Amino acid sequence: MKKKLLIGSLLCLTLVDVKAQVYSYDSTVPVPVMELYDKNLMNSYLNTLAATAARREQNYRYYGDKAMEAFDNRDWSHVVSYVNSALATQFYCGTLYYIRGYAYEQLGNLRAAKSDYKAGKKYNCVEAAEALDALKARMKRKK
After folding, report:
1. Residue 105 has what pLDDT?
2. Cα–Cα distance between 130 and 50 in angstroms, integer?
3. DSSP tag of 121
4. Residue among 118, 111, 121, 119 at smallest CA distance from 142
5. What's the confidence (pLDDT) of residue 22?
6. How far is residue 111's CA from residue 124's CA, in Å, rounded to a whole number?
7. How many CB atoms lie under 10 A from the CB of residue 63?
């Protein structure tokens, strides 16, 4: 079996080598090549990326702070709205998932709360893991 496998592998390698050879009718004239990366253009692109990331982080912090403020004021619908805006910046935090899950739980949307608690647990939020266990126990008792 090993012998057949070895022979098969060698045949495949040989065929690949044969197809990769240069034939006499292939052109050897150098083709003009444009520089792939214009340094000024690349620097401009990188600066734009950095500015965008900084702006997203600033928005994340702003909406995260607003969400915590709404959470302290027990304004559950605004908590959900602000956390959605914070998470839309693509910066993720387990605590934000936890407080949105708690807000959903207070609003009566247990399925969304469970989903957010799971996400918070995934991002190592201890409170989310504890809330998930408590919610599962509560949902089990209801059945």
Report:
1. 94
2. 37
3. H
4. 111
5. 47
6. 20
7. 21
User: How many CB atoms lie under 10 A from the CB of residue 75?
Assistant: 15
Q: What is the mean pLDDT of the chain?
A: 82
pLDDT digits (tens, 9 = 90+) for 10-59: 545 444 444 444 444 455 555 555 566 677 878 888 888 889 889 999 99
User: 3-state DSSP call for residue 110?
Assistant: helix
- pTM score, whole prediction: 0.69
Instruction: Please tell me the total number of residues recorded for the chain in this structure.
Output: 143
Exposed/middle/buried for 81, CB within 10 Å: 0-12, 13-18, 19+?
middle
| Residue 107 and residue 75 in contact, taking contact as beta carbons nearer than 8 Å | no
Scan for tokens 């799971």, then name that residue. 118
Rounded Cα distance between 60 and 52, Å, is 12
φ, ψ at 134 (rounded to 5°): -65, -40
